[in-house]
From TrEMBL:
It comes from Romboutsia timonensis. Keywords: 4Fe-4S, Iron, Iron-sulfur, Isoprene biosynthesis, Metal-binding, Oxidoreductase. Belongs to the IspH family. It holds the Pfam family LYTB. This is 4-hydroxy-3-methylbut-2-enyl diphosphate reductase. Its cofactor is [4Fe-4S] cluster. PANTHER family: 4-HYDROXY-3-METHYLBUT-2-ENYL DIPHOSPHATE REDUCTASE (PTHR30426:SF0). The gene is ispH. The active site is at E125. (2E)-4-hydroxy-3-methylbut-2-enyl diphosphate binds at H40, H73, H123, T163, S219, S220, N221, S262.
Length: 278
């Protein structure tokens, strides 16, 4: 049984930066609050909670004058305002690529543009982005969603995309919108690391008998990798080595491995070592 690893897999720049910033703060002080899970990987989050991180769902759950970590997904402007009102010490680990989207949305919205966000309306990144245009954005997840938009050619539109969006989907939607609207500004805000990771997974999947994609079940970029690999070969989505089905895996000779942007190296290494030991 041979294992091949995708050229790009695991922590992206934004997640790596956020995790380091959070750990450095925990080294100095315990009992630091995180607004939502630090990343979409429960094993990694557990390590930080063991160190003293307290994960909460709302900003109102944090006592005044405490420290709060804004995770890499970013948050709405309203969250910053409420944190400042409660005199919270903000440790802002928002990914710079996400922060760029916030700035684009805020600028165009203030200039009178209607904002269109391509992404999952329930994803924390999209919820945060929408908060920079007073939650007024039109949010679409697929080409079919375009049919539900009430577009007016008399308006100005600005389009941004979730950083983990599939590039092919983005291009399809851009092609349709560009034909329907005269005054529209497109911003390809898909993270370069996301594009590279997806391309590397696609290239590897054509050279192996099956693919293993490691990452959180709730991780958007991980599930996109799963879908990309499924188009080529049988694909197994796992969080840790314990999720592997040995009987199914034993049918394959060459196994490809990739991982989502929130997957720590130690989990990837555990999976590879386990497969090689079979």
């Amino acid at each position: 049984m041979k294992v091949k690893i995708a050229k790009e897999a695991g922590f992206c720049f934004g997640v790596k930066r956020a995790m380091k910033m959070a750990w450095d703060e925990l080294e100095l002080n315990s009992d630091i609050y995180a607004l939502g899970p630090l990343i979409h990987n429960r094993q990694a989050v557990q390590k930080y909670e063991d160190k003293g991180l307290i994960t909460v769902d709302t900003i109102d759950s944090i006592p005044n004058n405490e420290s709060v970590i804004i995770r890499s997904h970013g948050v709405s402007k309203d969250i910053y305002d409420r944190a400042n009102f409660s005199n919270l010490n903000i440790i802002d680990t928002t990914c710079p690529f996400v922060k760029k989207i916030h700035n684009i949305v805020k600028e165009f919205y203030e200039e009178g543009f209607k904002i269109i966000i391509i992404g999952d309306k329930n994803h924390p990144e999209i919820i945060g982005i929408n908060g920079w245009c007073e939650n007024s954005a039109l949010i679409i997840k697929s080409v079919d969603d375009l049919n539900n938009l009430n577009l007016d050619n008399n308006n100005k539109y600005c389009v941004v995309a979730q950083t983990t969006l599939n590039l092919e989907l983005y291009n399809q939607i851009v092609d349709i919108l560009s034909k329907e609207l005269d005054n529209i500004q497109f911003n390809n805000t898909i993270c370069s690391a996301t594009k590279t990771r997806q391309q590397a997974a696609k290239e590897l999947s054509v050279d192996v008998d099956c693919m293993i994609v490691i990452g959180g079940k709730h991780s958007s970029n991980t599930q996109k990798l799963v879908n990309i690999c499924k188009e080529q070969v049988p694909t197994f989505s796992i969080e840790t080595k314990e999720d592997l089905d040995i009987d199914k895996l034993s049918k394959f000779n060459i196994i490809g491995v990739t991982a989502g942007a929130s997957t720590p190296n130690w989990i990837i290494e555990d999976v590879i070592c386990f497969i090689e030991s079979l």
